[in-house]
Amino acid sequence: MGRYLVTGGAGYVGSHTVLALRDRGEDVVVLDDLSKGHREAVPAGVRLVDGRCEDRRALAEAFGGGRFDAVLHFAALSLVGDSMRDPLRYMAENLSTLSAVASAAVQHDCRRLVMSSTAALFGFPERIPIDEEQRLGPVSPYGESKLMCERALDWAERIHGLRFASLRYFNAAGADPEGRAGEDHDPETHLVPLAIDAALGLRPPLMVFGTDYPTDDGTGVRDYVHVTDLADAHLRVLPLLEKQSVRYNLGNGTGYSVRDVIETVERVGGRRVPHALGPRREGDPAVLVASSAKLRAETGWSPRFAKLEDIVRTAWDWRAAHPQGYAGARQAA
Fold first, then answer.
1. Whole-number pLDDT of residue 329
2. Catalytic residue of the set 90, 142, 224, 256
3. How many other CB atoms sit within 10 Å of the CB of residue 85?
4. Is 224 a catalytic residue?
5. For the NAD-dependent epimerase/dehydratase domain, which residue ranges apply (predicted)?
6. pTM of structure
7. Which of 52, 204, 217, 234 has its CA at 20 to 30 Å from residue 271's CA atom?
8. Helices 258-269 and 308-321, interaxial angle, to 10°?
């Protein structure tokens, strides 16, 4: 049995990674201040340290009890639009959070760290799908903050021997197939849950931003990766860190338009998705699809939920069973 610290483990991708670790019998500790995450998302048998990554006492408590085999770092600010309104906060907080966790890992003789990163590092890509050889050029403070984190980890490896994996991906979607966890953000900005909520009458009609892109149906095209498959990728890179640090782009390799998502939600749920058409948002590229060819070749990873319908179905099932999200679980308790 290994021992792992998951920062941001009460959040969306983090909680699903905790489930993946527990499913293979690992000992897990979660460090999360619950500002975005949910206590109910942390499964039984997992110790939750309620605190910020920059808090020395919280870090000391999290790292107490024995040496960790690795740290999986998800705790970060992650909204591109929000970063455009408050750039200095994003760059300062994301770097300071990562630096505090990495420093504590080194201090406690943990030499492996996996960071949840983003394909936003590439800004407007030169070609699709986006591979690791493309030029880095963030066009948002969020993307820039993650690039700063990668550069900080380069120095941590060079000076302290901290090996790291950076997984750069776009749109996480879906929910645990067994219904143990799902997506519950406030505010919610992701297309799949917004479309589902519109269909269920839990939110106002969905707004479609832009119908005049140079795509087959005029709407933006994005890559959607099931959250359980993302969790699996985080675990698969761990053995590689025994020898070297790695960076991987992570995607299904297939792009789906906004209209594709709407039609899929309607087909899966059997309900219409009320929606309105609006202008493009400034800075939104027409197509963003990430390659995972290198990750597949070097780790054997492949998505179990490659079809958009399969991704949407798990998201629909969880949301239909939890119309109030994790708040419903709190009230039931």
1. 64
2. 142
3. 10
4. no
5. 5-251
6. 0.96
7. 217
8. 60
